[in-house]
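Homework help thread (please don't just give me the answer)

Our assignment gives two proteins as sequence + structure token strings and asks us to describe the second one. The first is just a warm-up. Here they are:
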Amino acid sequence: MKLYSKIGIIFLVAFALLTASFASYWYIQKTQRLHKIEKRYVQTARIVLKHFREARKNHEKPNFNDEEFLSIVRNSAFEMVEPSSIYSIRKESKKLFQRPLGRVKVQVLRNHGNLFLFIKHKRFRVMFLDQESVRFPFGLLGVYFLALLFLVALYLWLIQSLKPLKVLQEKISKVEEGDLSVSFKTVQKDEVAQVSNAFDDALRKIESLMESRQLFLRTIMHELKTPIGKGRLLNEFLEDGKRKEQYEAVFERLELLIEEFSKIEQMLSSSYEFKLNNYNVQEMLDQALELMILEEEEIERKVKVNVIESFVLRTDFELFSLALKNLIDNALKYSPNHQVNIDVYADRIVLRNEGEFFMKNLEEFSQPFNPKGQGLGLGLYIVQNIMKMLKHDVNYKYIEGKHHFAISTQ
């Protein structure tokens, strides 16, 4: 899960908790307010019932328009409603709650934002308008929106603070693709900026080392071409035809090695442009054997190719041939009988050669100049790098006294 997703989830949880907290507080306040209203309404109903009983005790008809009675009711913040309006108000109102009080039924009604107290007795019916305004808790709502605004501002501030980290990730991806010219320098002072500046310093050192290595290799290859050219020129003046052919083969071998070094240097410096296409593995085997400059008799004697099924592979012809050349060369050099068997299947190519067991896994001997490999390290290092770049698999097994190297697609 991405960091931005985690932060989003955290703030969603915080938003849910904030909303739940304010909703709970509002519900508690509403319950307490309704309890107070109910208590005040019941007290008023008791006053009405007491007035009715006193009138009956004096054998009088209850007068609910009595000024003394109305004054007591007004002190409780109620106003008498005209009897003619009671029916229409009840019809249009919503009942909030109802409870019995002796022989009296007490109802609280809401109508267009107003609260009414309706008292029903078999001998009388009265209704009072509550003079206390029922206010919406705008203060609580305002505090909630302020807290929500603070939460959103905190989220945006945090996302903005992490933007340099996203930019850093994008630049690192470019470096991974081989672009070392990317600059990570920044004038900011936070922790991300410190990491970015440190990474830039390290990258500049790596770039300098790679440029030095490339210059060194290219200088060597350039300097080697000069004596080879002179040697070929002098070879033309030799009268001994056999020796002339031998020298020519040596010079050709040296030029092929220089070309091979050039490809390896381009590959390691990530400046090589792949030429991907579908090729028959047998054609690339022929190219690999040509790179080794073996005589036809030597090829027939040392290399046994068994094409069981045709294997067509989407790859780079030159790089794949170079990898095969290194595997075949290692097999011939370090096999006791100096022979290699190559089996071609529909989905893989397997190289087998005799030899003593010397490694448990291929990764251990795929480092350059590995002393344990008796010289095999550089060749396997080249093979591993080429196969990783071409996205092919190289597997190694030691079976019945033979090394098995299998190349297949991922």
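The one we have to describe:
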Amino acid sequence: MAKDWDKEYARKLATPAEAAARVKSGDRIAYGFTHLAPYDVDDAIADRIEAGELEGLEFEMALSMRQRPYAVFERSASAEQARFTSLHMLGIDRTIQADGRGWFTPMLFNETPSYWRPGNDFDICAVQVCPMDENGDFNLGPSPTDIKAILRNSRCIIFEVNKNMPVALGPDNSWHIDDVDLVVEGSNTPLAESGSRPVGETERKVASHIVDLIEEGSTLQLGIGTLPDVIGEMLAASDKGDFSIHTELLGDPYMKMIEAGKVTNSKKRDTGKSVYAVAIGNRSLYEYIDNNPACMAAPVDYVNNYTTISSIDRFISVNGCLNVDLYGQVCSESIGFTQLSGTGGQLDFVLGAYASKGGKSFLCVNSTRTLKDGRVISNIRPLLDRGQIVSTPRAAVHYLVTEYGAVNLKGLTTWRRAEKLISIAHPDFREELIKEAEKMGIWTRTSKSEY
């Protein structure tokens, strides 16, 4: 006779306060990626912090998609009470960092599950999940990333059930009631949506250079931000099609292509399925994912694995960056000493796409940006500014794109790289960049000599 999982569920059912009572001072607590972070349990832990019952807590989270900030941050007063670490920074994470209580964890996204092991484990994992099914399984929702590795390396597991969490089908995206310590029936907060962003003419020009180089039947990985939205819109309206999706982040740009009939998922591994490790978008995206066998949620050590990506022909990777210098070094995550985002899977896909037969990797940046004081500066710099992080090393960069064109840097000397990069810089800064390249010794009279 099949076991009655409902009885096991009832035995482990707890209030948020009862779940928070499991927390001890000095505990390390995982809240997981994007939509996984709890609300009701978070509030209850914050109650205990505010009451002076807890101190020395460390919270691990990443790419925080929230309807409201973390209660444990807003209702704690110092790093002695609660400190925070993040694998990828969004607005909430940056606020915590600016307060002096948050630290960034550098990573290669494809390796993340391997980071969680004895010695780098958690006292408690508290995350939102889908309601339990008839087999006693909880689907883990649209951010499988590294959550199974976190669960395997946590001493206490608390699930907060959210009926608004879409069931994200995948080969390794559920967890059984037997292996859960407590279940909290949450207040069912809707998933945060990404919202629309204004699209400028510059972004459209950058996108057009990329779209021109994407072939029929390519497999796509588009990053996050305005540019992927424009590329998705352009591909949906183009005469190209038969695209496949294998992406770290599944977002609204893909919905435009899917609705236009441009996606077949016929030219890659996992035929017939749009593969992703994280989903962030609007409500229509979450409704599309829910129980949809055409979507495959998978851990990041599969999705972002170099071998997986490189095995797919005509793989196209598109990601944004903040600055590039004349050596070809790319910064995608910081301005000065301020961590703005994270490394994410950029390097994973840059390397994998180039190794793919017919594959292309694009790193994109507007040629200039305007500072708060009104000054316009070039995003192509002689050298990256002090404190800026090299997200993608120069040897890995394939195509670099601005509104002035797309240049292929693979296999070029330092002089040729500088020449190509200056050719797509804003015209107002090209002469200045040439002078700086001369000072750096990578633009000399003999550089262009034929032998």
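TA reply:
I won't write it for you, but here's a hint about the kind of observation we're looking for: Residues 5-185 form a domain with the Glutaconate Coenzyme A-transferase fold (CATH 3.40.1080.10).
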